[in-house]
Design goal:
With 178 residues, the protein is an all-alpha fold. 75% of the residues lie in helices and 0% in strands. Belongs to the GtrA family.
Length: 178
């Protein structure tokens, strides 16, 4: 039964009025006051990784599709197909990362960023070529599907290496530029 006239609701007496934005318990209040800061930083990380993932996904589709087209349908060699597909995908990815996924980071200039990006991608390209070449010539795999599997492994390894290197050297945090 609701409290009568002049009586306070027992829950309200303990917690105070439950107005929008008011949390009744002190420990919950302390946590909820910190939550917006944490969610903003967590939201920022999620958005950043999401943008990196979308740009990477576009690059992935370009690289896998072009590799399959060149090797599986046009008869190109596996290593040549991997090299061409990676170079095309990495060029698209540079502009996507520069203008979207790392747009919030310091700008150190196109003349510095693009060569660093190319150098990092060149290293990961060599890593990827090594993986595909090992699968083709070391393991003597010739099936387009088997070599596509090696290509996928090389892309996964390269993605981790590229992300870490991009953050550190190509698109550094504003406070790291000095």
């Amino acid at each position: 039964m609701p409290p009568g006239r002049g009586e306070r609701d027992p829950v309200e007496a303990l917690a105070g009025p439950l107005a929008p934005g008011r949390v009744p318990w002190p420990f919950v209040t302390a946590v909820s006051e910190r939550a917006p800061r944490r969610s903003r930083s967590l939201g920022s990380v999620v958005r950043h990784l999401g943008a990196f993932g979308v740009v990477g996904g576009v690059g992935f589709v370009i690289e896998v599709g072009l590799f399959q087209l060149l090797y599986g349908h046009l008869g190109s060699g596996a290593v040549v197909a991997k090299a061409v597909a990676t170079i095309v995908a990495m060029t698209v990815a540079f502009f996507g990362h520069r203008h979207w996924s790392f747009a919030h980071r310091a700008r150190t200039g196109f003349k510095r960023e693009y060569p660093m990006f190319l150098a990092i991608n060149g290293l990961t390209l060599l890593l990827g070529l090594g993986i595909v070449a090992f699968a083709r010539y070391g393991l003597d795999l010739t099936s387009a599907w088997a070599l596509q599997g090696a290509n996928l492994v090389s892309i996964a390894v390269g993605t981790v290496v590229r992300y870490l290197m991009y953050r550190r050297w190509v698109f550094p945090a504003a406070d790291a530029v000095g």
